[in-house]
Design a protein that fits this description.
The protein is α/β, with parallel strands linked by helices. The protein has 3 domains: 136 residues, Immunoglobulin-like; 174 residues, 3-Layer(aba) Sandwich (Rossmann fold), CATH 3.40.50.410; 74 residues. The protein has 10 helices and 16 strands. Strand 7, helix 4 and strand 8 form a beta-alpha-beta unit. The longest helix has 21 residues. The protein starts with 9 loop residues before the first strand and ends in an 8-residue tail after the last helix. 45% of the residues are buried.
Length: 414
């Protein structure tokens, strides 16, 4: 593995919550939470990033002509264009029909200013057909090489939702990531489907501002411009008698997957200097005596197109040690992400709750977990949700949508 051309570009690390596990005689099974961490390998030189192309599809329906939303979008798109440092950025403004405003490459000042002028001369009107905008963006992105992303900005429910879901499947099949910034009346179930299917990011804002929009666009542009490895997949092959009971991408967004044996899930692109993490739980038979169990094998598959490498594979065993009388300390890294995944589950349940008292209980539990995970920002936002439900004695639509998306976002790298 010393050959620079054949050494793995990515490293795979598997950490159990507890090692060793306490063996309890008479207990039939033991649950083993663990974390799979994927990062760039060390010692093989710097892997180049890929070519980058982004297409923003911005809602300019009549409802965007309220509360300063469209001027905020215009300001954020202008800022993104004028600070574009790499790759190509295109913009589609859509209402009942999509209008491609154009595209510009980093460093092409004339193209940038032409596109800025087109953005600033566009005004809101008519209805909302996101499917048509997605269908218009797909061939543009298909024609580009390297890392590609779709950035959706919308404030309302769209017509033809089934077609949007079909298109999300096509984006996923073409390894194009879709990110969604939602506000007001957007159907979050649809937004979740689009982003989960393509391993994108979903954020909901109660109030759209140019600053928050600029932050969202800058983050997604940065990520697309810094992809090192594409189409990262994690597989889990459980040994006989061992069952996978939970699996979720735990970073950068919490996305749950149905457990299966064998299990395989696409968890996205790896960004330079970052990591991808999958949290999972297996249940294994408790041994009758102290033993080291081979519970499962973890497989990592990924593509590095810029080096001409596809379906690269790295594997590692999941080994459990069960010892009577052990008092193991839990891994802080695994515990951190376990709390974030469980908090996301509780926030999602709170968002569906009809009883305000029960919603507060779930929010309080999620708040404790985010505090234990050290996520101060999430803890503060959950506290504001609790206070809102207590004050109004209702679970408003804004509370539901904030809770739904807040639990998914994990921005802390440990």
């Amino acid at each position: 593995m010393n050959n620079r051309q054949t050494a793995p570009v990515l490293d795979l690390r598997v950490n159990l919550l507890r090692d060793p596990e306490q063996r309890v005689p008479g207990t039939p099974t033991v649950k083993a939470p663990f974390l799979v961490t994927i990062q760039q390998s060390e010692g093989i030189g710097e892997t180049p990033t890929m070519n980058a192309s982004c297409m923003a599809v911005a809602d300019r329906s009549s409802s965007m002509d309220q509360a300063g939303k469209w001027p905020a979008v215009q300001s954020a798109l202008t800022d993104a264009l004028r600070t574009l440092s790499a790759g190509e950025f295109g913009i589609i403004a859509f209402n009942s029909q999509p209008t491609e405003l154009g595209s510009a490459r980093a460093g092409d000042r004339r193209a940038v200013e032409r596109l800025v002028k087109a953005v600033q001369s566009t005004a809101p009107c008519n209805g909302t057909n996101l499917d048509r905008a997605m269908a218009h963006a797909l061939p543009w992105l298909r024609q580009r090489q390297g890392a590609r992303s779709l950035l959706i900005l919308s404030d309302g429910q769209t017509e033809n939702e089934p077609e949007c879901r079909k298109l999300a499947d096509e984006f996923a099949a073409n390894e194009i990531v879709a990110h969604f910034l939602a506000t007001d009346d957007v159907n979050l179930e649809l937004a979740k489907y689009i982003t989960d299917r393509t391993n994108g990011r979903l954020e909901y804002l109660n109030r759209l501002t140019a600053q928050e929009l600029s932050t969202f666009l800058a983050q997604q542009l940065h990520d697309t411009q810094n992809v090192v490895a594409q189409n990262v997949r994690v597989g889990i092959r459980c040994s006989g008698g061992v069952g996978l009971v939970a699996a979720a991408r735990a970073y950068p967004d919490v996305i749950h997957f149905p457990p299966a044996n064998p299990f395989m899930a696409a968890i996205g692109n790896l960004i330079r200097g970052d990591a991808l993490r999958l949290y999972a739980e297996v249940v294994a038979p408790m041994p009758d005596q102290d033993a080291r169990l081979h519970a499962a094998d973890i497989d990592l598959l990924y593509d590095v197109p810029q080096l001409g490498r596809r379906d690269e594979r790295v594997s590692a065993p999941l080994l459990m040690t069960c010892v009577a009388g052990a008092s193991p300390q839990p891994s802080s890294d695994v515990l951190h992400f376990m709390h974030l995944v469980k908090a996301e589950e509780e926030l999602a349940r709170a968002a569906q709750e009809q009883d305000p008292a029960r919603a507060i209980e779930l929010l309080q539990s999620a708040q404790r977990r985010t505090r234990l995970a050290g996520d101060t920002r999430k803890t503060q936002v959950v506290d504001s949700l609790i206070q809102s439900v207590r004050t109004t004695r209702t679970i408003t639509d804004g509370v539901r949508k904030t809770a739904t998306t807040l639990g998914r976002r994990t921005k802390i790298v440990t």
